Each structure stands twice: as C-alpha cells, then as structure tokens.
Amino acid sequence: MQTKTFKPSSKYLSKSRLSITIVALLILAGGILLGWLMSFDREIGASGFRIVVIVTAITDAVWWVPAMLLTGPYYRSLSYEIQDDEVIVRAGVLTKSVKHVPYRTVTNLTVKRDILDRWLGLGTLNIQTAGMSGQTGAEERLVGLPNVQEVYEMVVTELRRFRGGMAPTAAEVEGAPAVASADALSAILAEVRAIRQSLETDL
Fold it and tell me: Less Cβ crowding at N or C end of the chain, within 10 Å?
C-alpha cells in the first residue's frame, strides 16, 4: 500500500485556541468570585476584591499568551502516516517527536468526539496498544481529523491485512490464544480424575 499522509484540519487550531480561552475565562471567573466573596470581609473590602482580580488576570495572561502563540506551530508540526505495518505520528515544537505504532501491538481502536469536535465536525482516533492495556490512556491519538471515520476504516483495513499476512505462529501469538487440542484436554481430564480418586482414597 502506498503511504497515506494526513494533517489535522485547520478547525483543530481553532478548537485548541478556543479550549485555551475557555479555561482562561473560567480561571478569571473563579478569581472574580473569590474576590467578591472576600469583599464581604470589612477588613478586605473593595480594595481586596480589586487585588484578587488583578492578580488572577495577570496570572491568567502569563500562561494564556504563550499557549496561544504556541498552538500555531504545534498544529503545523502535526502529521500522521498510515503505512503497511504501522502508524506514524509526528508532533512537537521545541522537541520534535516521531512515534511509531506497529500494527502487531495494536489492541483497540476508538473514535472520540467531544462537544467542540461535534460542533466543528472533527474527531480523534485513539490507538491503544498492548503496552497500554489496562490503562485509561491511548498509546497514540490522531487528533483534529475531519474524516475520522474514513481514517478509522483505513487503519482497520490495514490492520486486518497485516494480521492476515502474518505467519501462523506469529498470528497465533498476536491474535486470540490457540485452542487446546482434544488430546491435551483428554490428558488434563485424566489427571484431574486421578487426583480426585487419590483424595477420596485418603479420606
């Protein structure tokens, strides 16, 4: 298969900036509420309210401005590749990272759409691997996809093709556990009966 390369939709940049702004506004609203409650104290009064609001606004701006500036370069750094045997995710501004997710380690694929995703027509493909089994997170996330269902189907198709082409021994290890043979089951049953008879004799 020819390598397919994707980038997140430009709407993902808007979503990132909107999410950051919502968090900043919630923090500011919390500071205003705190200052308002403190203003009921006669010793603090209106001056205390103003101080709390100013400190909250400055603290908010200290992280909000850099975060907004970095969203653009981070968005442009994101790219995804779907290959015959793995998915590759490239990301990073200050530190560039290239993550390889081999199909042989993939245990689950899920599509996720939060409220903003549904509003903007986006989705995220979560890829979970054997190393992340039992944990809440995904090994890798393909975010900001406008055609997330199409990408999901593409990865599922390549995953099935890859596993279908594996050697029987490898497929057995990566897939479902092998079913025990009839001879092995008969031997286990005979052993259990022998143990039972031994215990009954001792009693």
Answer: C
Ramachandran quadrant class, 92 (left: phi over 0; alpha: psi -120 to 50; beta: rest)? left
Q: Is the pTM of this model over 0.85?
A: no
**First vs last C-alpha separation in the chain:** 67
Taking a C-beta distance cutoff of 8 angstroms, is the pair 11, 144 a contact?
Answer: yes
Q: How many CA atoms within 13 Å lie on the side-chain side of 50?
A: 3
Helices 45-77 and 10-38, packing angle to 10 deg: 170
What pLDDT is recorded for position 114? 92
Q: Cα(39)–Cα(50) distance, rounded to whole angstroms?
A: 9
Give the distance from CA 33 to its chain's centroid. 34
Residues contacting residue 198 through CB under 8 Å, at least 6 positions apart: none
Q: Are 73 and 146 in the same domain?
A: no
> 22, 45, 77: which is the final residue of a domain?
77
Overall domain count for the chain: 2
Residues of the chain with pLDDT under 70: 1, 131-138, 165-185, 202-203
Domain span at residue 139 reads 79-174
